[in-house]
UniProtKB/TrEMBL annotation, chain A:
It comes from Halovulum marinum. It is found in: Cell inner membrane; Membrane. The keyword Cell membrane applies. Transmembrane segments: none annotated. Keywords: Cell cycle, Cell division, Cell inner membrane, Cell membrane, Membrane, Transmembrane, Transmembrane helix. InterPro entries: Cell_div_FtsQ/DivIB_C (IPR005548), FtsQ (IPR026579), POTRA (IPR034746). Pfam families: FtsQ_DivIB_C (PF03799). PROSITE patterns: POTRA. Essential cell division protein. Residues 75-143 form the POTRA domain. PANTHER family: CELL DIVISION PROTEIN FTSQ (PTHR35851:SF1). Belongs to the FtsQ/DivIB family. FtsQ subfamily. One of its GO terms (cellular component) is cell division site. This is Cell division protein FtsQ.
TrEMBL record, chain B:
Self-interacts. Interacts with FtsZ. Belongs to the FtsA/MreB family. It holds the Pfam family FtsA. Residues 24-225 form the SHS2 domain. Cell division protein that is involved in the assembly of the Z ring. May serve as a membrane anchor for the Z ring. Its main location: membrane. It comes from Halovulum marinum. SUPFAM superfamilies: Actin-like ATPase domain. It comes from the Bacteria. GO terms for biological process: FtsZ-dependent cytokinesis. It is a peripheral membrane protein. One of its GO terms (cellular component) is cytoplasmic side of plasma membrane. This is Cell division protein FtsA. It is found in: Cell membrane.
Length: 291, 444
C-alpha cells in the first residue's frame, strides 16, 4: 500500500542549498543586512525630495515658521531716521528709502540698503543700522562740491576736493561761488587745481578758470584774455612768480595774450598784434620796413 | 601514470589553498551515514603563529567548528549507486555543518569505503647522482618503480613511499642529504575503481564543492584509531562499517596495505530482519540496543519484544530471547572476521613486529566483539575510539566517527606522497613545454 502522503525529504533542495551557501558569504550578508535597508532609506528619501508636493509643503512650513518669528514686535521697524542732508541728497535718497513701513528687521537687507546708499554720487560715507525702538537709523555724510568741471562739449560736472563726482550741473550760473576747471583729466588732479586757485585768490575776480592741457599741465585763464601757462612741475612756484610780476608791474593788465612760465629761467610773454606793431615802431622810428 | 600525477597535484594545490583560507570540510561518505566536520585551521589567538607550511599544519592545529551526521542514501557497499540520493544526503550534511559553523566551505576532503581498494608493493632503484641524495634523486627513484598493470578501470589513489634503502642500510625514513651510491625505494600503491571515484567527484561537483583530497575510509580510520606506538610497530585497523569492512595495516607510521571486505553491519541487520521476521527499522533498532555476539546463560531469560509488522493489533506480539538474536548475529560476524583474517594472512601481516588489531567503525560497538575477534584472528584485539580533537562534539567521538576524525588529522598533517616529489623532467618535460607555450598563446 502506498502512503497517502509522500514523506517529506529532509534534504534541502538544490536551490535552498545554494541560497544558504550564498547567504554564508560575508559580502552578501553585509550587503543584505546593512546595504539593503540603507538603499531603501535612500530611495524613500530621494522619492520624498523629488516630489513637488512635499517640497512645496516643506517650503511653506519653513516660510510660515520664519514669518511667525519675523512678526515678533521686538523685530518691527516702523520709523526711518535720516540725519540732516541737503535737499538734493534727500531727493536722491527718497527712492532708495522707499520702504513700506512697518517692516520686520528680518526682512530688511541692511547690506543691500547700505550698498545702494553708498552707491549714490553725493554720498561720501554712510552707516545704516537698526536701533532699539524700531528705528532704522541712516547716517549719511555728504560730498561737498569744490569745483565745477567743464567738458569740451560744454556739459558740466560738480567735483569734490578729491576729484570724485558729486553730481551734474546745468549751468555756471547755478554755482557762482565755485571755481571752474576744464580739460581732460582735470578731475584726477583737483587737489593741485585747488591749490593753484587758492594761490590766485588775490585776483579772484579776474580768474576765469584753470585749463588742463594735454593731461599734464595747467593754464590759468583770466577774464582779461590773458593765459598764464604753467609748467608740469613747480606750477605753484611759477604761478607765485607770475603773481609777483603782476603785483610789481601790473603785468596782466598789459596788452599781452600769454604769459609763458614754462621755462623756469625766465617768463616769456606773447604780445597781442597791436602791441607787436607798436614795438616794431619803437625800434624803427623811421618807419622803415626791413627788406 | 602522468595524468594521475596531474590530478593529484591539482588536488594538492586545492588542499593548500583551503589550508591558506583556513576552513575546510571533511566528509566521510559511508554506506550507513555521511559525516561532515568543518575544520578551522590556525584559530585566532593562541595558535596564530602557526602558519600553514608546505606540508600543511602540524598535528592538532585545527579546531572542529561544525559537525553534522545524516543517514546515507544511495550508497551501497561504499560506492554510489543513486547519484541524486547521495547528492541530497551530502547536501543535508554539509548544510547542517555549515549552519553550525556559521561559515561557508568550498573545499572538501572526502573518504569513501568502497571501490574495492587493492594494494601493490613497488620498488625502484637508481644511482645517486652527486653522492648526496637530493630531492630529485628521490623523485628519480620513485619514477623508477615499475608500475604494474593495475587494469584499465582503476585509478591510483595513494602512492606512498614507505621505505628507503641507501646502499645496504634500509628502513630510512628520509634519505635526503645522506651519502650513498644506490637509492632504492619501496612504494605502496593503492588503486581503486575509477568509476567509484568519478561518481564521487561528480557528486561533489553537483554540490558546488571542490574536492581537495580523497582517501579511503580504512586509511583515515587507521590514522585516528591507532595510537602512535601501534602505527610505528605495526598494527591493523579494521573499520567495520555499514556496508564494507575496511582493513588497513600500518607500520613505521605508513600505511602499507589496505583492503576491504564488502560486508558490514547492514548484513547483520538484514539477517535479523529475515531470520526473525521483523521490519528493517525494527531490526536495526534491536541490533543496536540488544545486539551481541557472545551468549551467556542470562541471555536465554532476556526477552526482547519485537514490534509487529502489522501495527496496531495487540494479539500478535512477539518476543524473542536475546540468545536467539545473538544466534543470528554471530555467524555473520564470524563470517566477516574470517574474511578479514584471510585478507590479513594474504597481506603478510604475521611478519610485522607488532600484530595488534584495532576494531573501529560503527559495528565495532557490538558487545562481545573483542573476544570473538581475538578468538578468530588469534591476536590482541581492542576497540579503538578516534583520537580526541579540539572542538569535536561528544556525539562524534564514538568509533563510528573514526574515519571522519582520521580524515581531519590527515588533512592537517598529510603524508608525503609520490607526487609531492618532483618528477624527473624526461617524463614530463614535453608536456611542461607545451603547457608553457599554450599559456603564452592564451595570455599574450
Amino acid at each position: 500500500m502506498l502512503p497517502v502522503k509522500a514523506t517529506r525529504d529532509p534534504a534541502p533542495s538544490r536551490l535552498k542549498y545554494r541560497l544558504e551557501r550564498l547567504w554564508l558569504r560575508p559580502a552578501i550578508r553585509i550587503s543584505v543586512r546593512i546595504g539593503l535597508p540603507l538603499a531603501a532609506l535612500a530611495l524613500i528619501g530621494v522619492a520624498a525630495a523629488t516630489d513637488p508636493g512635499v517640497r512645496q509643503a516643506v517650503a511653506d512650513r519653513a516660510q510660515a515658521g520664519r514669518d511667525a518669528i519675523a512678526a515678533h514686535p521686538a523685530l518691527r521697524v516702523d520709523r526711518i531716521a535720516v540725519n540732516a542732508v541737503s535737499a538734493e541728497l534727500s531727493a536722491a535718497l527718497a527712492p532708495v528709502l522707499d520702504i513700506p513701513l512697518p517692516v520686520s528687521s528680518m526682512d530688511l537687507d541692511l547690506d543691500d540698503l547700505y550698498d545702494r546708499i553708498a552707491a549714490l554720487e553725493a554720498v561720501a560715507a554712510a552707516s545704516v543700522r537698526i536701533e532699539s525702538g524700531g528705528t532704522l537709523k541712516i547716517q549719511v555724510e555728504e560730498r561737498t562740491p569744490a569745483v565745477l568741471w567743464r567738458h569740451d562739449d560744454g556739459s558740466m560736472e560738480l567735483l569734490d576736493a578729491s576729484g570724485r563726482r558729486v553730481g551734474g550741473a546745468t549751468g555756471r550760473a547755478d554755482w557762482p561761488e565755485l571755481p571752474l576747471i576744464a580739460g581732460q583729466g582735470a578731475d584726477r588732479v583737483t587737489g593741485e587745481a585747488l591749490a593753484l586757485l587758492r594761490l590766485a585768490l588775490p585776483l579772484s575776480d579776474k580768474v576765469r578758470g584753470l585749463v588742463r592741457v594735454g593731461e599734464r599741465r595747467w593754464n590759468l585763464e583770466l577774464t582779461t584774455d590773458v593765459v598764464v601757462m604753467l609748467p608740469e612741475t613747480g606750477a605753484q612756484a611759477a604761478l607765485a612768480r607770475a603773481l609777483a610780476l603782476n603785483d610789481a608791474d601790473d603785468l596782466f593788465a598789459r596788452d599781452i595774450s600769454h604769459v609763458d612760465m614754462r621755462d623756469g629761467r625766465r617768463p616769456i610773454l606773447r604780445l597781442k598784434t597791436p602791441a607787436v606793431d607798436m614795438m616794431r615802431n619803437l625800434r624803427n622810428p623811421e618807419g622803415e620796413r626791413d627788406a | 601514470m602522468s595524468h594521475v600525477f596531474e590530478a593529484q597535484r591539482a588536488m594538492r594545490g586545492r588542499r593548500e589553498a583551503a589550508l591558506r583560507r583556513g576552513v575546510v570540510a571533511v566528509l566521510d561518505v559511508g554506506t550507513s551515514k555521511i559525516a561532515c566536520l568543518i575544520l578551522r585551521f590556525a584559530p585566532d589567538g593562541d595558535e596564530g603563529d602557526r602558519r600553514p607550511t608546505r606540508h600543511g599544519l602540524t598535528h592538532g592545529a585545527f579546531r572542529v567548528i561544525g559537525a553534522a551526521t545524516t543517514r546515507s542514501r544511495g550508497v551501497r557497499a561504499g560506492a554510489i549507486t543513486a547519484m541524486d540520493e547521495t547528492e541530497r544526503a551530502i547536501r543535508t550534511a554539509v548544510q547542517a555543518a555549515q549552519k553550525m559553523a556559521g561559515v561557508r566551505v568550498d573545499h572538501v576532503i572526502a573518504s569513501f569505503g568502497g571501490g574495492s581498494p587493492r594494494s601493490y608493493g613497488l620498488s625502484g632503484e637508481v644511482r645517486v647522482e652527486n653522492g648526496e641524495v637530493s630531492e630529485l634523486d628521490v623523485g628519480h627513484a620513485l619514477a623508477a618503480c615499475d608500475v604494474p598493470d593495475y587494469g584499465h578501470g582503476r585509478e591510483a589513489l595513494h602512492a606512498l613511499p614507505v621505505n628507503f634503502t641507501l646502499d645496504s642500510r634500509t628502513g630510512l625514513r628520509d634519505p635526503r642529504g645522506q651519502i650513498g651510491a644506490r637509492l632504492a625505494v619501496d612504494m605502496h600503491l593503492l588503486t581503486v575503481d575509477a568509476a567509484t571515484v568519478h561518481n564521487l567527484l561528480q557528486c561533489f561537483r553537483r554540490c558546488d564543492l571542490e574536492l581537495a583530497g580523497l582517501t579511503i575510509a580504512p586509511y583515515a580510520a587507521g590514522i585516528s584509531a591507532l595510537v602512535e606506538d601501534e602505527q610505528e610497530l605495526g598494527a591493523a585497523c579494521i573499520d567495520i562499517g555499514g556496508g564494507t569492512t575496511g582493513i588497513s595495516i600500518f607500520a613505521k607510521r605508513h600505511m602499507i596495505y589496505a583492503d576491504a571486505v564488502p560486508m558490514g553491519g547492514h548484513h547483520l541487520t538484514s539477517d535479523i530482519c529475515q531470520g526473525l521476521h521483523m521490519p528493517m527499522p525494527a531490526a536495526e533498532r534491536i541490533k543496536t540496543l540488544n545486539g551481541g555476539v557472545l551468549a551467556t546463560g542470562a541471555d536465554d531469560r532476556d526477552l526482547i519484544e519485537i514490534p509487529s509488522a502489522f501495527e496496531g493489533s495487540e494479539r500478535d506480539r512477539q518476543q524473542i530471547s536475546r540468545s536467539e538474536l545473538i544466534g543470528v548475529m554471530r555467524p555473520r560476524m564470524e563470517e566477516i572476521l574470517e574474511e578479514v583474517r584471510d585478507r590479513l594472512d594474504a597481506s603478510g601481516f604475521e611478519y610485522l613486529q607488532g600484530q595488534r588489531v584495532v576494531l573501529t567503525g560503527g559495528s565495532a560497538q557490538v558487545p562481545g566483539l573483542e573476544e570473538l575477534a581475538a578468538r578468530i584472528l588469534g591476536r590482541q584485539v581492542r576497540v579503538g575510539k578516534p583520537l580526541r580533537v579540539q572542538g569535536l562534539p561528544q556525539a562524534a567521538t564514538g568509533p563510528s566517527f573514526a574515519a571522519a576524525v582520521g580524515l581531519a588529522l590527515h588533512a592537517s598533517a598529510p603524508q608525503d606522497e609520490c607526487w609531492d616529489f618532483e618528477m624527473p623532467s624526461d617524463r614530463v618535460g614535453a608536456r611542461r613545454v607545451r603547457r608553457a607555450i599554450r599559456w603564452f598563446r592564451e595570455n599574450w
